[in-house]
Design goal:
mainly alpha; Amino acid/polyamine transporter I; globular
């Protein structure tokens, strides 16, 4: 593999994972919790980044060294477990994708004034075209990279316009006034929960970047992916904080739109349209690609027609949106439920790391195992806690 080509694939995998995470739910969750926690939300972001890195490094390394997709690893750990994991991932991916399609429709509505449903249909067609082209993998890599850079650049502009109290944000990141468990679970679930953490790992596997000889590059790519998503999260948090610190109130029906509009007027609102569309459409691509990657190994027919199944996945998501819609609370709910999937999927990967029939003579670093086990335990406890305490308040 050519060096340039390999570097491009590694970067593409990082952006695929990051832009899969940065969707309408990501924008909504970040601005919603900033309006509630203000500068103390910085602590939630810092905690979630640490958990995200630990989870993703473990998952990507074990997939790379085993040279198998997550569902096949799970079936090797315990027959049938892979089918269960795939079912969880695909259902979560479909639920998220309905929200992603809705977000894309909203972005087009803001930019051009067409109805959100028409915007969703047009966006669905664009997402499908990415997989229709001959070299779909390359097209997907390039598409997510360009859209990712645009999102971050525009959000940086709005952040500077909002003039956030950066000093206060830094202090409260380490000494918060309050610690919100639901916020932590939701952020982790929305970044590495469900299908998202597997997006880049499965992309690298499809591109042939696997085995012990590539572990260094795979690990760097996994951390880069979290870095890209976290940069966007921090800039969006600061933009929202700047608005909240001025005493302005965010619209609970659409928190991210009000951040951009209050910070930069009508220009900001149009920028929100671009950011929302880019965030949503890249998440549509990532969710469809990764969800289908969890079932394509189950039969030769699924493998042969996987590209058309991806297209069907996008088409179904688009169709369902025209019937259901995209409430803000549902996006937060799906993010927290995805946080429940993480302890299961990461736990399976950690068990697999110590099975020679899966990883051969590979020795998983002990510090990484300890890090991973802590994340499994902490996320399991916090997810259950948030379901019993935080979510009832959210839907009260």
């Amino acid at each position: 593999m050519k060096k340039e080509s390999k570097a491009s694939i590694l970067l593409g995998a990082a952006f695929l994972m990051a832009t899969s995470a940065i969707g309408p739910g990501f924008l909504t969750q970040t601005t919603h919790f900033t309006s509630i926690l203000a500068a103390s939300f910085g602590f939630v972001i810092l905690t979630s980044i640490i958990i995200d890195i630990g989870a993703q490094m473990n998952v990507w390394r074990i997939i790379a060294v085993s040279e198998k997709r997550a569902q096949d690893i799970a079936n090797d750990v315990l027959p049938g477990l892979g089918f269960f994991l795939a079912a969880l991932i695909v259902m979560g991916g479909l639920a998220f994708n309905i929200g992603n399609i809705a977000g894309a429709g909203l972005g087009v509505n803001v930019l051009f004034g067409v109805s959100p449903k028409m915007g969703a249909l047009l966006s669905g067609v664009i997402a499908i075209l990415v997989f229709v082209v001959r070299e779909a993998g390359k097209a997907m890599d390039r598409f997510t990279q360009v859209a990712g850079f645009i999102m971050i650049a525009l959000t940086v502009y709005v952040m500077f316009t909002a003039q956030p109290p950066v000093g206060e944000a830094v202090v409260k990141t380490f000494v918060p006034d309050t610690i919100d468990v639901l916020a932590i679970v939701t952020l982790v679930g929305g970044t590495v929960g469900g299908y998202i953490t597997f997006a880049g790992a499965h992309r690298l596997l499809d591109a042939g970047i696997k085995g012990k000889e590539n572990l260094g590059e795979v690990t760097r790519s996994s951390v880069s992916a979290i870095g890209i998503a976290s940069i966007m999260r921090i800039f969006l948090f600061l933009a929202a904080l700047g608005v909240v610190a001025q005493g302005l109130t965010l619209d609970p029906a659409n928190p991210p739109a009000s951040v951009f509009k209050l910070a930069a007027g009508n220009v900001g609102y149009k920028i929100f349209g671009v950011v929302m569309w880019a965030a949503a459409i890249t998440s549509v691509v990532g969710a469809a690609y990764t969800s289908v990657s969890f079932i394509r190994t189950f039969s030769p027919t699924l493998e042969k027609y996987h590209k058309w199944i991806i297209i069907g996945f996008i088409a179904v998501s688009t169709l369902v949106f025209t019937i259901i819609g995209q409430p803000v609370k549902i996006l937060i709910l799906v993010g927290s439920l995805n946080g429940l999937i993480l302890p299961i999927s990461l736990g399976v990967m950690l068990i697999a790391a110590y099975k020679p029939k899966i990883v051969g003579d590979y020795k998983h670093p002990m510090w990484m195992t300890i890090f991973g086990v802590l994340i499994v335990v902490i996320m399991a406890i916090m997810s259950v806690y948030s379901l019993y305490t935080g979510l009832p308040k959210l839907f009260a």
